[in-house]
Amino acid sequence: MVLNSYEDKLGVITANATTPYILGFVDLNETGPLVVELPPGPTAGGVGDFWQRAIIDMGETGPDKGKGGKYLVLPPGAAIPADSGDYYLAKSETMNVLVGFRVLDPDPGKGKALVEKFRMYPYSNRAQPTRTNLLTPGGKAWSGTQPKRMAYWERLHQIIQKEPVNERDRFYMAMLASLEIEKDKPFNPAEAQRKALEQGAQMGELVAKANTFAKRFPGVQYWPDRQWDTVLNIAEPSQRVAFYDQLWERSAWFYDAVTNTKGMVSRTPGLGPTYLGSYTDEKGDWLDGKFMFEVTPLDTVRSISGARGVMEDCGQDNAGLFLDIWHLSRGSMDHSEIRTLPASMTHSIGLAGADRYPLTDLIENTCHTAAS
Description:
alpha+beta, Immunoglobulin-like, VPA0735-like fold, four-stranded mixed β-sheet, globular
């Protein structure tokens, strides 16, 4: 999948607005060993497993050093082929992997030419590899964020069926078994359990938000006199330090973003970025990103009660209304409906100095004129 336009990148929670991205999720259960042909040129990326651990970097921070080359991704338990010396070898501990890179050449034409040379195919087809089909969302809305409520547990159960159980997974699998989420078993929770699981998913996301937006890791504040945090606090892509795996650090990063490579934690100038995030203003007050919906007589939703219904359907605590008195008056809306709104849903009110009654011409009616 090629993400080039701003609209196509909106579904990725890490992407910047100017860099072309190429992403592909691959199920090695279906492909077997996978060949990735990365063309030469300025790129940064890699192959990651479903714990979002970097299996291998590609591009300028990878073994090809920007010269391109063939990578061979092996699924768990696969034998190393006799011709493995022809490839950069990557051994995955999960069956599902993400192959992704971004183009660093500022010239759009050169970047496009580089992307068109990218190839990915099963190792079994290496003698006659088929053409790699590069798709784009084409401006269609999509989201790579975590599923919510019951969909979270259903997705988790689905993934577990396709993955081997590694040593690091076994205690997690024990906890999931108590929720009747097990490998090689169906997941059919009763109504009471579904309710508890939905509440648990909501509570888990609240913990994830607090862990991400109010980090408590040592040295997380980048400057002592400013409200900027180091967002990526994973020491290195295995997510492992001397005596433990970085559970909370990885949880914070992967609620905020996706993927992790050696290049992303590099401190070498010119090879790796530094990711910073700010969640509060200079006074320590939250940048809460309130979502406001304005009711206007020209929109599909033309009543205060209708707009309230839209906000409630969003299911987000920060969703609310912007009430522009000029629009409410010109749209002949029932002002008494304002009294029925919860105070938390009224985020802003616009007071307009327009004429009390509409003028005959719409353009004249909307112009600002100085008082005589």
